[in-house]
Amino acid sequence: MGDGNIHVDHQEEGLRRRGCGCSCSKNDFLPEESFQSFGNYLRALKETPMRFKDRLLTRSKDSTEIHEIKARSEHEMKRTLNWWDLIWLGIGSVVGAGIFVLTGLEARDHAGPAVVLSYLVSGVSAMLSVFCYTEFAVEIPVAGGSFAYLRVELGDFMAFIAAGNILLEYVISGAAVARAWTSYFATLCNHKPDDFRIIAHSLPDDYGHLDPIAVVVTAVVCILAVISTKGSSRFNYVSSIVHFVVILFIVVAGLAKADTKNYADFAPNGARGIFTASAVLFFAYVGFDAVSTMAEETKNPARDIPIGLVGSMAITIVVYCLLAVTLCLMVPYKMIDVDAPFSVAFESVGWGWAKYIVAAGALKGMTSVLLVSAVGQARYLTHIARTHMMPPWLAHVDAKTGTPVNATVVMLAATAIIAFFTKLDILSNLLSISTLFIFMLVAVSLLVRRYYVSGVTTAVNRAKLVVFIVIILGSSIATALIWGAADQGSWIGYVITIPIWFFATLALKIFVPQAKDPKLWGVPLVPWLPSASILINIFLLGSIDVQSFERFAVWTVILLIYYFLFGLHASYDTAKASGENKAEDGFREVEEVTVSSQNGAL
């Protein structure tokens, strides 16, 4: 087929009509010029190096994400949420299976009663990431979350790699929570979890315990998420209140049975045990980023998002620390049950009836996590599809409900399939690494956003910025490697790497002028806070097992294959046809900004 105006017109019409979302023709999935004929596709493949360079160097603009990209869903999401909704959605997205399942495991095997410090360390890491997310969510209030932020600051390619991993994290964590839901439901019914599962002896044991309840729960959550975001928020609100009443009961009743002798051996494995547990327990904080994807549905993002995100994380950290203290005061850490730590703890002090309250609270919490996760992951996928890195059919927003129906159904179908077949321990081994990687990239993006503006930042200052960020990353990676490889008593390496990180951050503050002030709400203590976020996230990565990195690498390879065969060409064609990016050269076509030194923006 020929090219030129005919194909541009064809694609521009595709940009307008893809919102119908109701058909399933080829053009709903691959409407771009590169896929209109086999010859076009071959030409696109030959141009892969040139197209990759364009997508690697081209960054999006704030206005592009907020207006042009969002408009590709045809219908807008309804602005119905306020800061109160966001606080409860934040709590609902985080406080779930992690605290009820992982606390006992990490207290017994790694940290002992010092598991409270592990929760504090991973909570500080999560809070630093919350601050970084908040500035982006306020200034780029769209459904894409970290994908949109990275597209603006680090370009299409890094955004796609990050988005692919965050979607994997959502699906896997959702499946893990759905499987755990069945386990706690069985406890409530005085049964074993396998009593409610179908044992398929012809399948490997790790994949042969089929879980229909997990599928049913996921389907119900899907219906709730599709019907209404505000309705989902109200359900989560009620569910979270019930959950908090149960948590209050656990803390008060548990402390009434406290024995301070259980704290005699506070940190049996020292600092290494505390940080090893902290890397695993970071999973208990995963989910808050789902709230940032709801910025498009928030009435007043500049006010509501900072209060909602920071407030919910502060409450969550306090709750986790209280629960960790309570558990280890009730039972000696060596006697904690890893499967149902709180239920068995109450049984051990003669309150067997309390296990039903604990199980009911855990079910409420896990239902909230599933619901908020479903809402968040669908919005990620919607915004990715708006750029055509994924099929645009997934970008459809329903005119009546104002929700991304196609993306919600597809993501939860994937979650249900994995939950149906795969055992919880297999799923839990796949968690955390992707999230820490994303949070590190968002912190890097914030440094780029504050210190680099095309046409304003000089070439010398840009070079200094790159050098200092590379040193910050390098010293953080070195610190993590030393931690992962060294003996517990070896501290000499840290005496070298930590000062290098410190002086690189100090040099960034002194020698590179900030090129941009935040328009509405800004992260305090830049560059120290995002630099500390980079260090802590990479450090926690150093405590994760090698197998997790292997799985991370395999998934990244799969993403790269998809990107170079489909995503790259679809997004390139769409950007050119819509005039989304009119490149000058490299990073020079960058962004719409508020430049502190030029126009005195606040």
TrEMBL record:
Topological type in the membrane: Multi-pass membrane protein
Residue span(s) of domain Cationic amino acid transporter C-terminal: 521-571
Protein source organism: Salix viminalis
MF annotations from Gene Ontology: L-glutamate transmembrane transporter activity; L-lysine transmembrane transporter activity
Domain of life: Eukaryota
Record InterPro entries: AA/rel_permease1, CAT_C
Annotated transmembrane regions: 86-105, 117-136, 157-178, 212-228, 235-255, 275-295, 307-333, 353-381, 402-421, 433-453, 465-485, 491-508, 520-540, 552-572
Example of a GO cellular component annotation carried by this entry: plasma membrane
Main localization category: membrane
A family per Pfam: AA_permease_2
Localization annotation: Membrane
Name of this protein: CATIONIC AMINO ACID TRANSPORTER 1
Family: Belongs to the amino acid-polyamine-organocation (APC) superfamily. Cationic amino acid transporter (CAT) (TC 2.A.3.3) family.
Keywords per UniProt: Amino-acid transport, Membrane, Transmembrane, Transmembrane helix, Transport
Keyword Transport recorded: yes
